[in-house]
């Protein structure tokens, strides 16, 4: 490339898998492990935290579900803000700030004695967690060769699930310890059982949140070991630094002294606008509908189920320790699925892989509902492995599509806003499922929750995920980031007409938050009200109405534009 023009993607593809690839992979993997631990530690300790906060309430319901919600709401805000900052100030600075931020604000949660204190710091820490994930996805997509991009993006996300598993493995022995591990700090708690009796425990769960402060130290490591991506440098107008990084990457791999000429570096044109509203312009609305719909479904089901799996099995008669262990087995399977999905996605394509995954989820949840049983730990482990594999396969299959759907200038913004919106699904799911579980229709004759019936509700979002995948997802596998950007340019759609659609989506998100998060927490006996379920259904289904209306309309226009272009090409050929 000494005397001819080149792009960043061409150089990275030419270098292939290198020492640089693996250094980036390891650095991001640890960031995701800490990120995953910080999120899942709430789900792994929520039974014990609930006993501490509400010792006289044997069934906290939506209150217990909200322990998960506050962190997810923080992740919504952090994801939306962090993605924009990543596109503005760089991937490295944003990632370091995010990692240190959630480490710092996880620490005070260990000292919480009520929901208000816990929720406040959970919300703040979630801001850092939410900022971290989209930046990691973006760095993976910008640092890996095109042919292996899907594998590395999804494999990298597997380390977040490693963090989930570690949370379970660490929390289970700590929370169930028969003695106080930190003296008076882990005080004895007497709490009420469902049958009216009482039991005691020690608040050893606090130690789990002290451990969650370790990312503060890792942030310091990242300061000295992580580098900015050449894609970001090039897109920010600093071609000299982009070429310098490309030279450093090649030298580390091939031990050559090749230097790239900034004057020959081609940078794809930047969008006319770079704010979040451009994601809803005619140019990007179909891609936005595709990934927002699919990831919303995945987050709703993954986080909703993880919040309530321990309660499900406690209700079947399993001990608290066994119930948390079953949740951990569910997440162990997620690691395997996250690794597998990238290989399959690169082989069969993003769209076909994702469509199959939703059908797989429907089959898995039906099997779990029918066959889960008390006093059969082996069978329940197998079912949790199946469901954990299926559900996390689906949500991870969306991951490569997020950064591939947008050009460099708005890649992190697009990825982070997709994840932020989807976390409203995750924030709502633990509360909504908790509310549904309290409804008479889902109760047994003895007044206990029949979770095997509740989980069948997930068939509805799985089916919606399948429909939206078939309609809106465009195949992106094997194409360079520059090729994908060029394909969007050919359609000639506007980048400036997204304001109205953006405002409408914000209104829908507000309605969703009110009906599915605020009302269950504020309105007394919300789940007992006859209008509760219809209103929550409206809140959850409104985004899909939006996707079908606006995404469908633009999809039809895009097809018409392609057909017209094809006819023009044929006419030119005949002439």
TrEMBL record:
Annotated Major facilitator superfamily (MFS) profile domain residues: 24-477
Membrane-spanning intervals of the chain: 21-42, 62-82, 94-111, 117-140, 152-171, 203-224, 284-305, 356-373, 379-399, 420-442, 454-473, 502-523, 535-556
Chief localization: membrane
Bilayer topology term: Multi-pass membrane protein
Domain of life: Bacteria
Keywords for the protein's UniProt record, in alphabetical order: Membrane, Transmembrane, Transmembrane helix
Pfam family, one: MFS_1
SUPFAM superfamilies reported in the protein's UniProt record: MFS general substrate transporter
Compartments, record wording: Cell membrane
Molecular-function GO term, any one: carboxylic acid transmembrane transporter activity
GO cellular component: plasma membrane
The protein, known as: MFS transporter
UniProt organism field: Gordonibacter urolithinfaciens
Source organism phylogeny: Bacteria, Bacillati, Actinomycetota, Coriobacteriia, Eggerthellales
């Amino acid at each position: 490339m000494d005397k001819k023009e080149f792009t960043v993607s061409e150089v990275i593809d030419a270098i292939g898998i290198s020492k640089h690839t693996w250094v980036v992979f390891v650095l991001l993997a640890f960031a995701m492990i800490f990120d995953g631990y910080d999120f899942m530690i709430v789900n792994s300790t929520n039974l014990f935290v609930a006993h501490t906060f509400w010792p006289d309430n044997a069934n906290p319901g939506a209150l217990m579900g909200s322990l998960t919600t506050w962190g997810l709401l923080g992740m919504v805000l952090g994801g939306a803000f962090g993605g924009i900052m990543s596109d503005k100030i760089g991937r490295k600075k944003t990632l370091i700030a995010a990692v240190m931020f959630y480490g710092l604000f996880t620490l005070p949660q260990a000292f919480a004695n009520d929901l208000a204190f816990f929720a406040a710091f959970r919300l703040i820490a979630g801001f850092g967690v939410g900022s971290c994930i989209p930046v990691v996805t973006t760095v993976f997509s910008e640092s890996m060769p095109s042919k292996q991009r899907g594998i590395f993006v999804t494999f990298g996300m597997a380390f977040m699930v490693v963090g989930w598993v570690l949370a379970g493995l660490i929390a289970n022995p700590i929370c169930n310890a028969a003695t106080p591990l930190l003296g008076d700090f882990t005080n004895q708690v007497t709490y009420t059982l469902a049958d009216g009796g009482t039991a005691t425990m020690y608040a050893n769960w606090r130690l789990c949140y002290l451990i969650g402060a370790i990312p503060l130290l890792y942030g310091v490591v990242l300061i000295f070991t992580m580098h900015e991506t050449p894609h970001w440098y090039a897109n920010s107008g600093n071609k000299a630094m982009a070429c310098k990084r490309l030279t450093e990457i090649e030298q580390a791999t091939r031990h050559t002294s090749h230097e790239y000429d900034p004057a020959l570096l081609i940078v794809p044109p930047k969008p006319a606008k770079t704010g979040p509203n451009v994601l809803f312009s005619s140019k990007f609305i179909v891609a936005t509908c595709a990934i927002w719909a699919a990831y919303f479904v995945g987050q709703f089901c993954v986080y909703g189920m993880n919040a309530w799996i321990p309660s499900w099995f406690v209700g079947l008669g399993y001990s608290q320790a066994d119930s948390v262990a079953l949740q951990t087995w569910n997440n162990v399977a997620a690691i395997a699925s996250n690794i597998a999905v990238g290989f399959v996605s690169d082989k069969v394509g993003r769209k076909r892989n994702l469509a199959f995954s939703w059908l797989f989820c429907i089959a898995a949840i039906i099997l779990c509902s029918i066959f889960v049983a008390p006093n059969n730990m082996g069978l329940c482990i197998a079912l949790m492995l199946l469901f954990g594999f299926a559900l996390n396969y689906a949500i991870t299959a969306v991951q490569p599509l997020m950064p591939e759907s947008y050009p460099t200038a708005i890649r992190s913004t697009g990825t982070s806003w997709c994840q932020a919106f989807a976390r409203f699904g995750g924030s709502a799911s633990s509360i909504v499922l908790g509310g549904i579980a309290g409804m008479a229709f889902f109760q047994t004759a003895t007044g206990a929750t029949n979770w095997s019936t509740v989980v069948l509700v997930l068939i509805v979002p799985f089916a919606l995920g399948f429909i939206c995948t078939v309609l809106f997802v465009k195949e992106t596998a094997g194409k360079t980031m520059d090729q994908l950007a060029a394909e969007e340019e050919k359609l000639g759609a506007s980048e400036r007409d997204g304001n109205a659609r953006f405002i409408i989506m914000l209104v829908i998100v507000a309605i969703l938050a009110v009906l599915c998060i605020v009302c269950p927490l504020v309105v007394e006996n919300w789940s007992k009200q006859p209008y509760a379920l219809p209103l929550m259904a409206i809140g959850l289904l409104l985004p899909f109405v939006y996707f079908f209306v606006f995404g469908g309309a633009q999809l039809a226009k895009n097809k018409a534009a392609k057909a017209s272009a094809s006819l023009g090409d044929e006419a030119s050929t005949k002439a």
